[in-house]
Queue: 3 jobs
Job 1
Amino acid sequence: MAAALLYCTDPMNPRQVDPHFAAEAGSARALGCVIGRIDHDALLGGRAQEAVATVPTDLGPAWYRGWMVPSDRYAALAAALAARGCQLLTTPRRYRSAHELPGWYDVFAAVTPPSVWMASAAGAVPSPAELTTLVAPLGGGPGIVKDYVKSRKHEWLEACFVPELTDAVNLHRLVTRFVGLQEDFLAGGIVVRSFEDFGGQGRDSAGSSEARVWWLDGEPVLVGPHPDTPEQCPDPELDQVHDAVRKLGCRFVTTDVALRADGVWRVIEVGDGQVSDLPRTIDPVALVTALIAAVAGPPAGRR
């Protein structure tokens, strides 16, 4: 059975792959992959069966490579595909573990900024007292506000960076603004992270240059730039990150790493590899080749 990759449909031309993923899909097709298309808009709208309507039946095991999907919608996608004879190689449980900070934080705690979180619905703002209790374990100092998946790093002073976490009024103001900007897209709840100096501002945790490392079955298969800085690619030290990735146990993940001002490599984010963006400056062949090889399953020692 040929390897299969599922990409998002072009909203303007449903018979084609979304242009953002067209080059990667073309490389996959040239390497013998079967390409399926997912209607991302239908999936987000709660119409999972419609979203997979053009995926060939009995496709077998497949990777998804497309736009971000909330964890509950990913579970619906997996179920709809299974009904058509297609099994996502990342299970819904593993997807949530890599996609949402509470799922990956514990195994990465030694190599990522200290963090706290609380579940919260879209539009709901915790009270100043609730936020004060939440951030108490961080012990004060500057911090970063985000949800379980994303920050508003491009609104750095408005909805991301907190100069002093013990300033309850300002913390509440910033969280209120963050929740308002996220609207219905707030994922999971509120996360507050200690600020660490990565040599700049305007990026999550103020990172000015990051590497994105792609891992398959616990091993790095590609080290490249972060999509926000596609022309810059540091050469990270990965021993501790490697250990954490293996402990996490997810088959396909990414880690965004940056060099802290004191010379220590730190993990800024972990993500599910299926919904992590590959910068256009990177030839997709190496990643696609690794994904094809991994369809057969992890090595015996990693099963």
Note: The longest strand covers residues 252-259.
Job 2
Amino acid sequence: MTDIDFYELLECERTADGATIKSSYRRLAMVHHPDRNPGNAEAETRFKAISEAYDCLKDPQKRAAYDQYGHAAFRNGGGGQSQGFEGFSDIFESVFGDFMGGGRQQRGGPRRGADLRYDLEISLEESFNGKTVPVTIDVAAPCAVCDGTGAKPGTSAKTCATCAGHGKVRAQQGFFVVERACPTCHGAGQVIADPCTACRGEGRVDKEKTLEVKIPAGVDEGTRIRISG
């Protein structure tokens, strides 16, 4: 019975305000209370179900989570069960991440490339006069086979069933509703059942790229030159 929609249990519209939900709960609780229905197991079960529904919908945070994810918002780690340090870390990040420039990578956003280091030896004369040096590095480029989708040609990514395409899931932890990246799609909102064999589902492949790097005149030994692009 607890899988029945909470609004249906309380006989309320999803747009009902807190006062309406409270009034409906009190009316139904009076009808199904065990003291008014001694020996009636069905009434007791209904009373417990509407009490659970009201406990959720009377709390703004819980109601918001339920409106977005339904009963799944309170499963898999819900009910105030501790998740140890990882759980605390997620709570801290969800509260302070935006203020500190942190937070998990947003769904669909570009990923930062890896830093590269290139050591180059030059002569004393080159150091004095400067020179232009061709530098070849590996860079990530969209996979030409799958056009960067990561899916095998002829197939496509599917909406993640765990998060319904949102890329995030919520769980109740004590007084908090914690939002984290979906463990199934890792925040992408989609899953690739048949990945591209050329890029192994990454949507990107490494390609060599040659850059013309200008060494300015008068550089000292050990000088570092940052290359962007």
Note: The longest strand covers residues 131-142.
Job 3
Amino acid sequence: MDGDLALWYARSRSKSSDFDRGRRQQEVIRTLFQKALQTGTFNKIPQLYTDFSSTVVTDMGLTDMLNMAPYAVNFTNANIRSYYIRPPYVQSWVTPGGAAVLLPQESLSQMLIEAATLSTFAATRESIVIEVQNGSHFDTMETLVASRLNYAGFETITSAADNRDYANTVLIDLTAAQDPNQQQTVLNVLGAYSANVLSFPDPNSKVHYRLIIGAEYDACFRPEDLAH
């Protein structure tokens, strides 16, 4: 995306909703953070602060940003949990005065507790490394899939597949445990329910799973599914 398309993606409500717009805005921020890591932008904070201080309003000073920068460069997208308010966490209601409001539901409290707590489940996902390869003829599919796995809390790396003629997605389990529940969790995040799962335990492997994306993989998904 160029700047105009990214702005449209973040702001549009046509054929969408405020809830989905909030999710898309989070995706844009996550992508900006990822690009900043890749391009060494954090090393340019003093110059950027000077360039944008007249157009960006913030209560953070340059010293605050420089103090936080060392923490940021040690993060990846897999370390960031994303939550956004939507039904069924809230329910639409019109007040007696005619104002359209959202009523919080009990499930919202549960989501807020989860968002504020580093769960053992989240920590377990962060310790799993998945190597993503694009075996389909669709370019950059490995980047999309890696980002989606990051969104769900998994660490990823990308590499070239041995060929681009895979008809079906393949998940190769390189772990010693060969846990079918963990395999299914990875596939559920992607919605890759028809993937072939192969077991090749390798105690010397630096990655836990190798995922080769096939031509049948459907990139469309329900974003709320990524939280589970």
Note: The mean pLDDT is 88.
